[in-house]
Queue: 3 jobs
Job 1
Amino acid sequence: MSTGQTHPGTHPVDDDLVRRLVAGQFPRWAGLAVERFPSGGTVNAMFRLGDDMAVRLPLVRGGADDVPKERAWLPRLRPHLPTSVPEVLGAGEPAEGFPWPWSVYRWLPGENPEAGALSEPVLLAGDLAGFVAAMRSITLPGAPRAHRGGPVASLDAGTRAAIGELRRIPQEGIDCDAAAAVWEQTLAAPGWDGPPVWLHADLMPGNLLVDGGRLTSVIDFGCLGVGDPACDLFPAWNLLPADARETFREALGVDDATWIRGRGRTLSQALIALPYYRKTNPAMASNARHVIRTVLEEG
């Protein structure tokens, strides 16, 4: 977790709080070692609990809203997916001055992939495509709308504001005119006119786990729901090199309009993230720079 407070209203958490919460609500696990797990995430904090579990606590009100969503949907999604996903072992409730629900999960081994340092990028692209395709094929009823899953136009005001802010930070070296041109192309692309599909909706490197270069787990389903399939194309630009990007696209059979929307959505997220996180969260800011560079180089 970044040591800087990256969102207003962040609630302080530490090892001692987690020990008290676990001992009070799950006495069978009291006495297990508790250690904060470093992460670039900004909405939740993660702690190892013994060797085989993890405690995940929301840091902000918005993250708390995601806890019941994961509890409700992950058990229903898991049988349909080709990779491991988080398994809730304990449903924690507010206590000890901590105001929100929290969860104990089975620990998932692996490490986050890093753009530019992938050992099997083409194989990883195929794995990612398999996960996205499996999500899209799910037909479970009653799905919520995915975070970011609506029309591209809903991102317009925030994206333009971020481009304006980056113009006032010349040291970042962002070609804001080029970014604005890509965004205009995104807005001009045909929207999704098919039925909404199931999405993870936050396929950032920090939400992927790999072993030996291959995808083993996808985590953090707080944004899940249904919407525009372009929303799950993020890894094409936030992680994969050009040849693997093409493998990813071909495996999913992505049409031109959806590809343009996916590229624009990924760029929008990065443009908004960079000025917000540049001084508080190095991991998020670094990936945002990578996305912007990749998208603009692709043209």
Job 2
Amino acid sequence: MKVTFLGTGTSQGIPIIGSTHPVCLSDDSRDKRLRVSVMVEWDNYRYVVDCGPDFRQQMLTAQVRNIDGIIFTHEHSDHVAGLDDIRPFVFRQGDLPIYAYDRVLKALHKRFDYVFDEENRYPGAPAVVENEIFNEPFVLNELKVIPVLVKHASLTIFGYRFGDFAYLTDVKTIDPVEREKLKDLDVLVVNALRIEPHPSHFNLEEALQFIKEINPKRAYLTHISHLLGFHVEVEAQLPENVFLAYDNLTITI
């Protein structure tokens, strides 16, 4: 399995528009972060988790010509705003499968009504095949995918386990029963927004404590804001098996 970090930034990305914060002015390419997303590939299949407002740029950078579907964690703008940009895939491949919690599908219907209006469909609109996800395993091309229910403040959202790889973003709390789904991981990806506590995301201390409890072989931090600090400085302070993800990083599981 191959995982590509398409974006590792928080909702505003880094640099933030107009910001003079030192991290936003950094010349290190690893400090420039698009909105958070990963691409997961196994055998000849390729799925993207979330498609935010940088989706088009991410697909061009990664030179992606086809995808087999998009899996959504939740409905916030930095995770769904790029849905219209699936059109090139739809025009080449046909209707694109999407996978999401019922509440997320309803939010997509509201935000992208022209995509889902079958009676008055704009001929140039993208077309999707909806697949509702529940808090139970489902199969994508012979691979079992396990949703992991977490809380983003009070909002219930999904992370996902693909084999020995798990991807969690926007986590603030997670119940013990859901933590059990994360045993014996090769790789865990989890959010670490900043140093200071935040009401709806893990900060660095919380993320590292969570990683210690789950005990994967390797862990990568994502959904990072400029307030976490410079990539090179933060990476140097992390435990031996924990790494700071950055855009376009590819790992093999």
Job 3
Amino acid sequence: MRPILNVENLTAGYTKTTAVIKDISFTVGEGELVGLIGANGAGKSTLIKALQGLVTGTQGRVVLPEQYAYIPEAPALYEELTMWEHMELVAMSRGLDRREFVRKADKLLKQFQMEQVKHHFPGGFSKGMRQKIMIICAILARPPLYLIDEPFNGLDALSIKELLELLEQEKQRGASMLLSTHVLETAQRICDRFIILDKGEIIIAGTLLELQNIARCAEEDLFAIFLQLTRGKNG
């Protein structure tokens, strides 16, 4: 499987003396969805930011496509732009045909029940609505790689269902994804492989079957495996 994201010996931190991410190496293959799993403070968000050069004190090698989409845990929007203008900005930056853009945009707005507010400013939106804007803009771009940090926070059940269907469609298209999430039941259902992160280090990585074999807990779910491996790591 051709790697779309290649990370070698990545170390990163917010100060020169404190490393949050410690000598991490992994790949994400073409059309592969890799789940990034870890407790609060494990370094998941820092890792995703470091891959993009957004963290100071970063060392190591990261190779990723020139075009990729980043869906952060905390939606980052321009308060002076309407939702539709955010979408137009993405379309312009990626050189999307206007007619094709409008068609895709209208379809995504309908899927996420946002048609009525597409010309509204995001200042008064809930976190879930703001998250939907980030998701819609990312899907519009149709990049070869998605970096996704806790996308389910703030979304209702129907929106989560729509997002999962869209991610599966993008995966079938050949897009690759690194997905950080606390929702282990969903991760087990949709991810091809898993990276378990603890205190800024990869403690284990592999498919569910490989994790079961390593943890010696056949037929256990991802949550049980995660608890066993992290408790053993910590003590």
